[in-house]
Design brief:
With 155 residues, this protein is mainly alpha-helical. Helix content is 74%, strand content 0%. The structure holds zinc ion.
């Protein structure tokens, strides 16, 4: 079973393939696009292992969820801000240590398609106005990096 570093390297190779295909696909390349392409491919290639309790992605996810909820509580209820610390600790522990089945739903093709669609929504949300071809490429990049993880796990 490849570790997260191997998965990132595979994801970046997928990104390299996409970057090389951009001219043939009629997609203008820029430094910004190349950097975001590499980021999406790297992030996507390690995301499926969020179902492992000691994965890097699980730790990042737990921290992001706990910090968002704790931060939102402190922001909207400044009089009792200290409860935010309890929410943070509780949510972090829960998100980090809740038992999940490894290679369960996050290691399926339908989930890969859903994840890629969500990645496109994030892209479209941040990039206004956006070109349809760019959104389609974003979907293809996320789906191929995700699928490369599933493929690598099967060896
Ligand atoms: Zn995996």
């Amino acid at each position: 079973m490849p570790d997260w570093k191997t998965h990132i390297v595979i994801g970046l190779l997928v990104a390299l393939g996409w970057a090389a295909a951009f001219p043939a696909l009629g997609i203008a390349s820029s430094l910004e696009k190349t950097a975001s392409l590499a980021f999406v491919a790297a992030f996507t290639s390690i995301f499926p292992d969020i179902d492992t309790r000691n994965s890097k992605m699980r730790g990042v996810f737990a921290l992001a969820v706990a910090a968002s909820v704790g931060g939102a509580y402190a922001y909207f209820s400044p009089a009792t801000w200290y409860y935010a610390l309890a929410y943070f600790a509780l949510l972090y522990a829960l998100a980090k240590h809740l038992p999940t089945k490894h290679r369960g739903i996050t290691h399926t093709l339908p989930f890969a398609v859903l994840f890629s669609a969500a990645a496109v929504l994030v892209y479209v949300g941040f990039k206004q106005p956006f070109a349809f071809i760019d959104a389609a490429a974003w979907f293809g990049i996320a789906l191929s990096a995700y699928s490369a993880h599933l493929l690598a796990d099967s060896f």
